[in-house]
Amino acid sequence: MTSYHPHPASDSPSPESDLRSEAALGSTVEIEQPVVPVAQGVYVTIHGHFYQPPRENPYLDAIERQPSAAPFHDWNERIHHECYRPNAFARVLSAQGELLGIVNNFEYLSFNIGPTLMSWLERYDVEVYQRILEADRKSCDRLNGHGNAIAQVYNHIILPLANERDKRTQIVWGKADFRSRFGRDPEGMWLAETAVDGPTLKALVAEGIRFIILAPSQVQRCRPLPTADDPDPEWHEVGGGQIDPTRPYRCYVPGGDRQKDYIDVFFYDGPISRDMGFSDALASSHSFAGRLGMAVRGDHRPAQLIAVATDGETFGHHRGGTEKCLAYAFTQEFEQRGWTVTNFAHYLSIHPPLWEAELKPVTAWSCSHGVDRWQDDCGCGGGGLWNQQWRRPLRQALDWLRDQLIEVYTSVASRYLIDPWAARNDYIQIIRDRSPANIHRFLARHRTRRLTAAEQIDVLRLLEMQRHTLLMYTSCGWFFEEISRPEGTQILRYATRAMELAGDVSGIQLEKKFVKRLSQAPSNVDLFKHGGEVYRQLVLPAQVSLEQVAAHYAITSLFTTYAPEQQVYCYTAHQMDYQLQRIGSLSLVVGQVQLVSSITWETGDFVFAVLHLGGWDFHCCIQPFSGRRPYTQLRDELFEALKHASAAHSILAMNRLFNGKFFSLHDLFAEERHRIMRLLSQETLTRLDQLYTQVYRDNYGVLMAFHRDGLEVPQELQVAAEVALSHRALTALKSLEQDMNDPSVTAQPPGSVHLAELEAIAQEAEHLHCRLNIPSARVTLEQLILRALWHLMQDFAPATAESEVQQIERLIRLGAHLHLGISLDRAQEVFFQGIVGPALERAVLEGCSQDEVEGDRDREELLRCYLALSRILAVDTGALVR
What we know:
Number of helices: 33
Strand order of the largest sheet: 7-11-10-14-8-9
Number of domains: 5
Structural class: alpha/beta
Radius of gyration: 32 Å
């Protein structure tokens, strides 16, 4: 086991300083010498590299729906459901499948989480985000000040292929993002694809990074560190992956000062790491511990580290349920074997390197050809008949664009900023906090003089241009087999946004030359032929103008009541005027809106008019606002034309008064377009529901006869039954939700009538072998169960407790009868973590047995309730009540 002094090693006074202190105080004063940390025994570090590439639309700062991730909105959401949340709330189960405990795996995992993914988690699930931050704090407490989290280069750029400035910015942004979240400086940093070379090491050392993690295949040779007794130890060639991964190594920057230009390196155990992803090493915690145990060296060394590393998404996404294996291994298996769970920083503090390593010139963990996977047709990531000849032209095109944008940036930014590149490095402070006050503080630090409003906008455009320049190098754009995949398309979208911003501030147009270079990148898909067509067909249509944002606001205002100041994606819409009139089936809205980008502060003032002809027909016109008087005249003329109740007359008037572009429903952003399409279809669907319901009622006896005699039911009648019952179920579920959310409903428990109706519908569907189409019911039921549990445990009332418990049980059974596959995870978390009222805590946690509460009816009822809930939610609480 570990033996070390209780204060952080990084803050430990040196022996020399203690001797000086002793001399200063006099020889009669005894000074306690610090205990030098010493590693003893077997240590285990499991490192997870958690990362998702940025997926936001560059113009909207939001991830749009990704159909391939169905039934989830997008891949971030899907992987979060399968991996990130399950690891923050990992289950330890009994042999009977009951919940024994909930473990935050991040308390034990060494991990890095990409900044772009952390930003998404912070926005999407703040509970999981806080669990991750809390896990790092707890690991700091447990491991002498050394937290589990390490930083990552900001947006996963392959650093050996980046220029010197981009290397530094990626590291600086990664460090600053880490510090803003975890409240401390990172000791280590994860390199994208563990790609490394000499200049990368130099950049890391310059920014104070103490250690990195590499694959065993990336080292060429190693030797013991030189000493006075042996100033030139023999080198050992280990280029075939024979490096001993149980110890840390010191790596010196080529050509640097050996006294200070070095970084420490951990090489993960390659065979075990591969088995975690591609074999059955994670089949159970016992087999996992056994596989790790095979790496323990029996040579009687005092300490050794068994370290493995893999994509964090392995635990739950790539390999479903393996977060449970980790949880049990961390809390049970490893401890039973006498192993200490640690992280790299802590191990380094108690076992400094005694060996040095020399790396191969340019390497990465996922390419056997150096870093050619991100610049050449090396065969990695390919297979089949497709080639990757597009990789080099794509990188060359982006490098050309980067260099052009450097010229724009330096020439324009130098007018406004003291040091444009220092400002770019500091821009991470704005990326993390885009509040006006923070932006003003940033500008005050970096400006050469007081800037006008237009100049401030140009500065923000320039910095955003540089951010998108970095984003267009995100590694996944080259990782796979085809340029037209979503990853390649995404980095090209960042490129086009960067070019657009460059044009806004300098007037320089780069797109034609860029597309010409892209045309040299051959696509494997006949539809595209080459990268130029990929750009035209997949990238250009995704561009968003301020006029399109205004049109989006105008059309959606017919279906959404907007506040005077409303956030629309990354724009603030200020409603200056809004008038709506309806005549017959025609609806006309005329208004004025001011749009302000929260990112660049760019502003646009627009006049809009939208004519809804009914159904899916919209005619929307947009033009710049030119003054109050012209706007009033335009508005009055349009409403006068509407009085004719003629669509043609109104459209002619709109076309005469507007010189701008025309928009329709098709021009809305996809998310909102789909919502409106569903709304517009609702009337038709309601009529169909009524029709199918009538057919079902008229033929109920016939259906029963077919089923009773075991005959095949006519498809038309079966479909009618399924549609009718699905409609009834959704209607009843909506009523149930309203009752349970309405504080004025006095029935205890609320919603009993509608719950009984849903139970009857489920039974009817079962008798008729109907498959109900009610996908939204799963989420609704999960929320109702969670809400009912919260109410019971927070506002415990003995008089109604039994009926409330029964209602929770009925809701759970209903989900099973409707075959919804509901999850009880959130309910278990609330229950197991003891988010309970004081009375229940006293009754259960202080009153340990049922015998002790007999005679106290309230406490007896509390305990009975607690035990019933544990049974219903499959939680083993025996240890608490025995």
